[in-house]
Amino acid sequence: MNEDVRSAARASIRYDTGAWFSTFGRIWPKDRSQGLQRPNPNFLQVLIQEVIDKMESLGLPIRIIGLKPRQKGSTTYFSAIDYTFLRRQSAAAVVIGGQYSQTTQIWEMMKTYCTNDGFNWGNTGEINAKEGRWSNGSRLVPETANDKLAGISGTFQILHATEVARWNKYGVANAAEVLTNILKSVPLLPDTVVILESTAEGNSGEFHDRFITAVDSADFLIGAVELQPGQYVRVFAPWLEFEDSAVRLTDAQKAEMERTLDAESEWEGERELMELYGVVGQDGVTRLGTSVKGFDVWEQLAWRRLAIHEECERDKDIFDRDYPHSWRVAFMKSGDRRFNGTGLGVLRKRLVKNVPIHGLIEEDKGRLSWRPTDNNEAKFTLFEKPLAGRKYLVCVDVMTGETQTGSEDPDYNSAFCLRAGYWNDYGKWVRPATAARIVSNRWDVDVLEGSVWRLAKYYGGTIGCKIIIEMNMDRGMTEYLKARGADLYAREIFNRREFKTTSALGFQTNQKTREMIIDLLARAIREWDKPGEGLDVWCEHAIEQLENFVRKGNGRSEAAEGYHDDDVLSIALGLQVIEQATTYFPERFGNIVPPDLRGEEGKAQMPGAYT
């Protein structure tokens, strides 16, 4: 190689991050035992470099906003851009994350680049625990968004902000203000770089709004849009454009994939992906997207199934957030919903299998009878008939009474009867289920208590089935039922000072126990198809609450804005103590099962849910 060629090669490496990345860059693979490796730029990394090259050729300030897919090298490549920029010219750079661990991730990548870089930049330097400095005058500093004054006193030529959409989640009180302030530290000049990157976190917020209003990379690269100085270009790559998003299959396994397309709720959406992205190559092979060459569509979809099951808690929505096929889907599916999306989808689909009936439970001389009514008159909704030998309990989440509350939109009283799961005579598991409920209401507690007692007797006989009450808003419910001789749940309390255990009626909810019962409900929804697990919720009102129950930025699980969570907490409470449910023996006090729920007709109307 003559000197002119060598000089051209060195110039290419110096001024093209992609050239340096694939020759002198070193990264750690997922399996660190393999040692440092030279990377081969993937679809997303090549796209990022093409955008930067064009911005530089037009003399524009580099402004990029990137939606990150999981484990596809977005941060890795953006960090390489930071590093090579600092080495080729004198510049000041700041990297910032919502919390220190995110800043550290970028820091360690750049430190690895610097420590193992064999290219002769014409300057020397290092990155230590606190800063990076080079002999050409470049410097690198870390910040966290929890400091609202982060970077405000400095001037930088490079700003790399990571996980911007999640800053609020990580405790950044004024995330938009912090971002605005630090953006002001980078002048709107050529040879400056601002990189905003994040995984999706809901369809609102500063990152979301900046992303959707940015110029799309495809439009920019083909010249369909004339970019103005300071405008951002958005970069995004769907999972199906990555060669590592596929698994090798035999012909028999491919045939099985084709036969089972969309066969399970866990991985449905496969046909839609084929319709949207299926491309037949010149070799006659169908693939998703245009970049993958070494695999076919069945091997790509097989990887999707594996990722949903093993990495995404069997939840398609989590997959669409972490490995989106479009950025719109990523934002739509990335809210902090608390419960498994696949499980919730199954609950909603199964609603059509159960036609509830509405009415009143009336009592005459100690005997109960069911009277069907229309919805407006009904106090109860029945989803399953009482079955001899099955176990039931009533769970109650009491709101502040109607005459006491001053809130414009207070919660409702919520009372359900849950039936415990069981193995039927054929060895099939029948999931726990909502057998009945008192209609959602804001009755005062003395009115509510009478209905709770009737529901407990209807599914438990003369003394009633077990009743569990959330005690934080008891409002006298326990004393009313205690006077009737109701079978009330009692919790054990250990006295450390006296070293003895006592009992107290009801379930006491605090931050710890609340999350405990929510975790148990989350598991039941997630493990809907596992024998011995799962839950059937036949109430559409309750399912709507489950679908809109989220984890807030402060870590607390609660209803999304504009929704309630009384049904969620009531069902979670009952599921927590379902093993203490009372066995129903109608022969002890006469057959009180209403005529319209008896026999085969009633069984077809309100079937058990078999796994």
Molecular structure report:
The protein is an alpha/beta fold and 611 residues long. It contains 20 helices and 25 strands. Strands 3-4-5-2-6-7-1-9-8 form a 9-stranded mixed sheet, with helices on both faces. Strands 12, 13, 14, 15, 16, 19, 20 and 25 form an 8-stranded mixed sheet that branches. Strands 10-11 form a two-stranded antiparallel ribbon. Helix 14 runs antiparallel to helix 18 and helix 17 crosses helix 19. It starts with a helix and ends in a 6-residue tail after the last helix. The relative contact order is 0.08. Residues 401-407 and 588-611 have low confidence and may be disordered.
What's the Cα radius of gyration? Answer: 30 Å
Distance between the termini: 70 Å
The description of the largest β-sheet is: 9 strands, mixed
Q: Give the % helix.
A: 25-40%
Largest sheet: spatial strand order:
3-4-5-2-6-7-1-9-8
What brief labels describe this structure?
alpha/beta, Rossmann fold, Nucleotidyltransferase, domain 5, 3 domains, nine-stranded mixed β-sheet, eight-stranded mixed β-sheet, 20 helices, 34% helix, 19% strand, disordered C terminus
Q: In brief, what are we looking at here?
A:
This protein has 611 residues and is of the alpha/beta class. It folds into 3 domains: 3-237, P-loop containing nucleotide triphosphate hydrolases (Rossmann fold), CATH 3.40.50; 242-326, no CATH class; 354-549 and 563-605, Nucleotidyltransferase, domain 5.
